[in-house]
Amino acid sequence: MKKYSAGLVTHTHWDREWYFSVEEYRFRLVKMMDSLLDIIDGEKDYVSFWFDGQTIIIEDYLAVKDEKTRERLLKALKSKKILIGPWYVLADELLVSGEAFIRNLSKGIEYMRKHGQNNLVGYLPDTFGHISQVPQLFKGFGIDNAVFWRGYRLNEVKSSETFWKGADGTEIKAVCLVQGYSNTCGLERERRGDDKESFANQKERIDQTISVLKEKSANGRLLLMNGVDHAFPSGDIKGKIKRLHQKYRELSIRHISLPDYIKDSCENIKGAKILVGELDYRPGLDGTLSSRIWQKQMNRRLENLLIHYAEPLSLLSWLRKDSWQDGFLNRAWELLIKNHPHDSICGCHSNSVAESLAGRFRKSLEITETLISEAFAEITGVNKNETDIDAHNKIVFFNPLSWDVSRCGEFDVELPEKTDFIELSDGNKNFPCQILEKKEILRRHFYRHINPTVQNVVKYRVLTPPLSMESTSMKAFDIITGKNRSHLRKYVRAALSKKFAFMENDFIRVKIYPDGSLDMINKENGTNLTGINRLSIERDEGDLYCFKAEKENKKYYSFPGRISIIEKGPVEVKIKVETALKINDGKNPVTLYFKLKAEGKHCEIDTEIENRCASHRIQALFKLPEKFSSVYSHMPFDMAQRKPCPENDWEKIRSGKTDVECPEQAMQFVLGADSEDGSFFIANKGLYEFTYPGPGLLGITLLRSAGIIHEQLVIHDSSTGECIGKNYASYSLGFSVSGVSAILRAGYEFNLPSMAYQMPGKTDFQKSKIVSFSSSEWFISSIKRSCNGKGTLIRFFNAASGKTEGYADIHIPFTRVYQAAIDERKLKALISKRERVKISAGAKEIITLLIE
Q: Model-level pTM greater than 0.70?
């Protein structure tokens, strides 16, 4: 008989909110933690309890406990009887940015070490798929392992202990939870009355678990995870181990901590089949990319505002006036990260939880937008909220991108009186603008020592012609107004016929049909796409976890509606299409706004869906020429190549009884199809789901309507998941040169426009710039003050699949530059020549610079 060494890890899996809210679950948490502390105090040989790899649970518990209990818990943490971290929360990976992944881990590790622990376990027990850069991200924090479930098929895992190789080539040890994180839960279950069947089933399940674990063990070691969702701990672990050993004589079982198991188990595993890159097999969970889609959109908006505007602008403010808003930035991040657990951001939760997410999003947004305004005020020396509006005004633009741009800028400006035209001047050239909107408003003026007053002003929404901006820079323009209309160059054109409307600029021509579909021609190389952006609706018989088409899998399409031109230029034209999507007896009005600006090879689309029906999915469909054979989607620190995935039998997919990957695939900023003579891209603002059923066929999900969490949780009201009412989606269709970096640039440019700030009064402004890169393959992830408060952090990643040599020009004061790990540990000093630092970036490598 072959002998095995088994480690029994006692734990709980704590979904902070799911079908109950945080506050409702907190009652169970308190009872569970009190019970655990009693066991620890009463059983001196109790080894440890693994608290799900999180730290936020400790905060949640202590928030309602007295000082005596606090000391009791801190004692258990100090003695390592309760093990926490390294995460702050167990976040989803597909729906949050790479930088959010880093901040979550940073916050968790800081809290963990504050309590004397250093549990560097890459614990991912219940994430709905795993991104390709997890190995590199973990290694950047000194974590050399991952313990995880999902993402892989059981038949693909030859050994539960193996290695995982990331997109950049980084390898870490991997422990696959092949039977889940609860493979031996229920050892402590007692038979309830005459419920012999469930008791027998429990014993049968553990038998099966032991059998599979032995089959998948390459080194004779087994990991027994004794716990499940919101499970209470049980005492007498020694007795339970003794009873297990009596049944499974071949096992040598001991109560062990998860960190110790990893140290012991990941030996002698050479020759195991290595897991590579993204692990995205998740049957039954694919619908979470589009459930409660408004949450994903708000999350994207906040991530972008925090990472690409609030932090770099706060950095410039600190460099100029030694003013750094640590507390507010940390608060905004904390509120946002609290929305990132998988059962939160994935949308598969009750209505009360959805309301909690909305509240945290709102608070984080209020802080972030105020931070941006305050930073602009510090940098410019003018607080517009404390200054009267007069005839003298400047507008300051900030370009967050790491490359120079020439693009239109959109901004709001408040003026003391009406004007017929607005133009900007940089002192050398004037730029006549297009007025999009205007309205008379009361403007509040704040003072330091008296109550605010109000001022009558006219608020304008203005669009500039293409303005040249250097990378990560700020540039000021004088605002010029007048009563006579200045000469405006006609950058764009539009016309309307009985059957369609068209619009064009110097680069593309777009023909728009009354059903919302369009043709698009690249005027530079003649590429012609016809009938793209076709709107479809189909029944969804699934739930908030899983999309499930009806048996016939019928799709219904938008029908011809009304089409009109509502903006005629000169910088932007806008065409409106009013159509509808019908399904069964329901009709959902859809309004699309197609916008073409002066500078680009792309058409922006704002979609308004008035959802009146339940249980369906709405997509925009694209049929592309055969030459667009390589499809990529942006994921954290990567452009992942995608394979076609046919719409198979959803029952088989959900049960895992198929080799087909999930038809619903993930994207972040952009989805692109590449060819030798150029690329086609679909950039988006907060849409994460696309389908790729066959060559040249793409679909992006604009709305999914589902009103139950899961068939086993129907008693919990989740009806707002139907998203009845008005819903919005913004995306952009266009052409770029060949290559994944060009596609990714399009996604960045759509998500990160230049941001404007009005400077009232006669004031001077000193131009600011942070950094520029020589390589078009490098993309900024973060610009902020370093965690130690002594300098600047600049993080970027190399999107190329090969090594890239180049340099960074640093335009802020510094004396030394270091290359650092992701957790900001200095690795090596870099040689600089004036402002220029030479850098070598490996394939898909994440580079962190510390500048002091």
A: yes
